[in-house]
Amino acid sequence: MNIRINTDNTGIDADEIEALRPETGKALDRLWSGREAMTGWVQLPTGRYEEELEYILNLADAVKNEAELFVVIGIGGSYLGAKAAIEALPKYERGIPVKFLGNNLCTDYFWETVEEIKKKKTILCVISKSGSTMEVRTAFEIVKPLLAERYGSEEEAAKRIIAITDAEKGALREETTEKGYTTMTIADDIGGRYSVLTPAGLLPMAVCGIDIRALLEGAAEMAGSPEWDTDLADYAICRYLLQQKGKEVEFIELCHSRLGYLGEWIKQLYGESEGKEGGGLLPTTLTFSTDLHSMGQYLQQGRQIFMETLLVVDEPSIQMTVPAGPQAGKTLAEISEAMVKGVIEAHRSAGIPIVEIHMDRLDAREYGQLLYFLETTCAITAMLSGVNPFDQPGVESYKAEMHKLLD
C-alpha cells in the first residue's frame, strides 16, 4: 500500500493498540457483512462497477463536447468529495471548468455564478436524494429559468440538466421523471458523506478531467489490503484511545497546499459520523506550513485538549531548487520535509500526541486509496465509541427551526 501510518509519537503504548485490534476486526466484519444499514460504500470499489463507470465516462465526454461550463448543485456529501478531488488532483484528460452552487446562501457568490452561466454554454447537474434540501432546491429554482431563457424553452433546458438522486422516491425523482432529465442514482444504502465514489463524486471529477478509473482502482486496492489485519486501523484505534484519555479536538494538518478542500470533506465525514451523544473529537484542519505562522504558537503552548494528525505527501510532482540565499541548492521538497520533521520533534517534545499519515504522491490512484482509508477509519472509530457512524439526527434540528421561520 502507498498509505502508511506512524503512531510512534502518540504517547499510546503498543500493548494498548494491540489490545483493541480484535475490536477493530469485529468492526471491519460488521462493515463488510452487508447486514449493517448504509454500508453500501464498503464493497463499492471492489464490485462490478464497469458498466456504471463506462456510462459516467461517456456522459462526461458528452458534457465536455456540448458545454463550456458544468455547474453542480449540491451540499455536504453531494459536492464536498468532488470539490476536494478537483482541487487536489492533476487533470489527465481534456476537461471543462466545474462550478458549485447550492452549498451556501451567499448572494454575492450566487450572482457571480449566475452571470457566468448567462455567458457560457452550461450543463447543470443537481445532486440530492430528496430534492428538498433548502440550499439545493433554492439554487436549482434560480438556475433553471436561466437555462430556459438561453435555450428557448423549458423542454430545451431539460436536455441540459442531469439529476443524481434516489432511484424511486423524492421530489427530485418525481421532477426528473416528469421532465425527462438525464439521470443517475445514489444507492439507498450509501449516505451523502460516504458517496464520493458514487456518480455524485465521479461525474464532476470526470468532467474536469480526473482519471476516475485510477481513483476507483486505488480505492479497491485499499479495500482489499491485507494490512487492515495489521496496522491500517491503528489510526482509528489511536483516535478512540486519545478521546478516552481526554482529548477533545483533532487538528488534521495537511502538508500540501492542494489538500485544503479535502480538509472540508474530512470535517463533514468525521463530524457527522462521530459527533453524537456528547462525544466525538472536534475535527478541524490546518494547512502547513502556512498555518504554522498563525496557529503554531497555540499548538506548541496552548491548552492541550487536542491531538494532531499530519497528512504528508512525500514525493512532489516536480522538483524546484532554491537558486540563492541561505537555502541555495536545496529543493523545496527538502525544506518541506525539514519543516514536517521539525514540527513533529517540537510537538512531540511538548507532549502532544501525533499520528502521521504518509502517501507517496498526489495522484488519482493514491488519492482513491486515501479516500477509502479515511472513510473506513472514521467508521471504525465511531463503532469503537459505540455510536452509529451513518446517521445524523442532530442535523434536522436547525432545519426544523429554519422552516418555522420561513413559513
What labels would you give this structure?
five-stranded mixed sheet, 15 helices, alpha/beta
Task: Give me the secondary-structure category.
Answer: alpha/beta
**Stretches where pLDDT falls below 50 for ≥5 residues?**
none
Give the integer mean of the pLDDT values. Answer: 94
- Number of helical elements: 15
Through-space gap between termini? 53 Å
Shape label: globular
The total of beta strands comes to 10
Strand fraction = 5-15%
Widest sheet, order of strands: 1-10-9-7-8
Description:
- The chain is of the alpha/beta class and 407 residues long.
- Helices cover 48% and strands 14% of the residues.
- It has 15 helices and 10 strands.
- The protein has helices spanning 14-32, 50-66, 80-88, 107-119, 134-151, 154-158, 171-179, 199-208, 212-223, 234-244, 260-274, 296-301, 332-349, 364-384, 395-406, and strands spanning 3-9, 69-73, 98-101, 122-127, 161-165, 182-185, 249-254, 282-287, 306-313, 354-359.
- The strands form 2 sheets. A 5-stranded mixed sheet has the order 1-10-9-7-8, with helices on both faces. Strands 3-2-4-5-6 form a 5-stranded parallel sheet, with helices on both faces.
- Strand 7 (249-254), helix 11 and strand 8 (282-287) form a beta-alpha-beta unit.
- The longest helix is centred in the C-terminal third of the chain and has 21 residues, at 364-384.
- It is globular.
- The model has no long low-confidence stretch (mean pLDDT 94).
